[in-house]
Design brief:
This protein is α+β, with helices and mostly antiparallel strands. It has eight helices and six strands, in the order αβββαβαααααββα. The protein folds into two domains: about 50 residues; about 220 residues, Glutaredoxin. A hairpin with a 5-residue loop joins strand 1 and strand 2.
């Protein structure tokens, strides 16, 4: 009987067994090749990942161990001093940059009793600072431009953890230091614009690009330098040290032992504790503090009696 199809004889049982073994061997060899190939790929991937992690760790270590740079120019006292310009407007008192680790040089106040020396310690996220600024910015500008007052502004960062992880206090204060360093005569306007656009405490705050846009709006010079300074947080280490000094050391030219909150506002060494919403109250305080200095400077010493003949 025939079954059709191939005339080849039916493989024997042994031949079928050998064919199955050969096929199994080939499959095992292919599986081993795949396993070796996968092992190489996995090892290569692990090596690449390790190298990437090592590079990242190296960058972070470098950033953390690199020496602190100098502070901003025009802030040798940890604050920038603003005064009346010869041709009107407000200009900064220029000072050299504070070297890393150096002790700040306290500002020498005008003790004639004719000028109010106003000093402010502020945090750009502090809502009370924003309130004080909104109430008194115009009168501060008028007093400084007229020569009736000087204004010394100390940006510090004490609300770093109040901006959803973005460290807005630090970045805004660094941006202010960047302006003080490269375009100091624009500082008053930039300071005012920062408060006009102040974010709410607890939010992410402004981005670096938004801070750069505000600097441009304030009319700063050296725009590219300031933008790079903002992106690099160039004065991060100085800001950390300046904030620590403010919180732990006596406030120069006053009897205040340290800064305990913002805003801290002093006029001729006397701390203002009045309303943040009444401009007349602050102006009255400025007049009172200046008059007190004037009276002290004009005090006539008691004459020494002349011995009788």
């Amino acid at each position: 009987m025939t079954y059709g199809g191939s005339n080849q004889p039916r493989p024997s049982r042994n031949e079928r067994r050998e064919a199955a073994r050969e096929k199994a061997r080939i499959l095992r060899e292919e599986q081993k090749k795949r396993e070796r190939r996968n092992k190489v790929l996995i090892q290569g991937g692990i090596i690449v990942a390790v190298v990437a992690v090592a590079a990242l760790i190296g960058v972070l270590i470098f950033q953390n161990v690199q020496p602190d740079g100098p502070g901003p120019q025009n802030m040798a006292s940890d604050g920038i001093v603003l005064t009346a310009g010869e041709d009107g407007g407000i200009v900064a008192v220029e000072t050299p940059a504070l070297a890393a680790g150096a002790t700040p040089t306290s500002t020498v106040p005008d003790e004639s009793g004719e000028v109010a020396n106003i000093v402010m310690y502020i945090d750009y996220l502090c809502p009370f600072c924003g309130q004080f600024e909104a109430t008194n910015s115009d009168s501060l500008r008028t007093m400084v431009e007229s020569g009736a007052a000087t204004l010394e502004v100390h940006p510090i960062a004490i609300l770093s953890n109040k901006s959803a992880g973005t460290r807005y206090s630090d970045r805004a204060a660094n941006a202010a230091a960047c302006v003080a360093d490269s375009s100091p005569d624009s500082f008053f306007d930039f300071n005012a614009i920062l408060f006009e656009n102040q974010p709410e405490e607890g939010t992410e705050g402004l981005t670096n690009d938004e801070l750069k846009a505000l600097a441009d709006e304030a009319g700063v010079s050296s725009v590219s330098t300031i933008e790079q300074c903002i992106d690099d947080e160039q004065f991060k280490s100085w800001l950390r040290d300046a904030t620590n000094r403010a919180l732990t050391e006596p406030v120069p030219n006053s009897e205040v032992p340290s800064i305990t909150g913002t805003p801290t506002v002093l006029v001729n060494g006397q701390q203002y504790g009045g309303s943040l919403e009444d401009p007349q109250e602050f102006q009255a305080f400025v007049l009172q503090a200046t008059s007190a200095t004037f009276n002290d400077s004009e005090a006539t010493p008691t004459p020494t009696p002349t011995p009788a003949q």
